[in-house]
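Hey L., structure's done. Input below.
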Amino acid sequence: LSPLLQGDRRTAYTIGLIHGVGMVFVDRQLTANKATPDPASLLDERDVRLLGLTHAEVGAYVLRQWNFPEEITEPVRCQFDPLDCLSFSKSACLLHTSKCIMRAIVRRASDTTPPPEPDPLVLTMLNLPADEYAEVLEETEGKFSLLELATSDI
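Output:
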């Protein structure tokens, strides 16, 4: 998906690599408070309920403390609501769409109901028509299956 940004692939790669850093700190806080996770709850909903903010917000804060530039911290902060990202909205939309693809792949492995589609406005921000999104999802799912097959005996 990163070619859709028509920008720096290294930045997109970095965002994808570290977008979940806030989960480490949220998990540490939840463990310290002996909070019991609710497996039926989405992680970001649980974060807000227990801590008052999402792991995305925590991650962006931590990354700012580590002197990461705004072009990385803002998409991380807005990964659940990418249209709220004013400065780097395409990067936030790319991250959000990538997360939708992974959730769809994981869900298909365990559930027969179709996964939710990304917000059409997010796809519009990426200039990605719904049919091309479906192709990217199918291609990524195929690559993921090959990776699982290649690593199944490890």
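The chain has eight helices and no strands. The mean pLDDT is 84.

-- N.
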